[in-house]
Amino acid sequence: MMQALLQSLIAAELPVLAAHDVTMWGYVVLGALEDQAVRTQNALAEAIGADKTRIIGTLDRLQAAGLITREPDPRDRRARVLAITERGRAVREAVRARIQSNENRLLARLSPADRAGLLNALRTLSELPREEITGAGRP
Fold this sequence. Notes:
Layout: H1 2-19, H2 24-35, E1 39-40, H3 41-48, H4 56-64, E2 68-73, E3 76-84, H5 86-107, H6 112-126, H7 130-134
Antiparallel strand pairs: 1-3, 2-3
Helix pairs in contact: 1-5, 2-5
């Protein structure tokens, strides 16, 4: 059930992302930088569960579009410090608003109690450490 729902939700988000010229990974990066204004590329990759070499293209596109900045880390010139720009915040907010509007439309099909229960369950599960979800480290 979750797989089919997730695929449908992604299909609903893709046109929203395309309208703002952002990929799904680009949106994830903008969200991570919004939550914590400055990160190195390595820390960002770890936080979003991406391979650090594979997000470079995404970062290049976001920087070229003026959505993020990448500056040398004063503590380690080999590293880059990332920050979201005002334009990046505006794009993220516009995308998030459209996505949330669709989610609210779907959640309106549930009774208030079911909606509250679903959101509570999702919140609880999303706050679990990645290792707990993946079962990493278990025999």
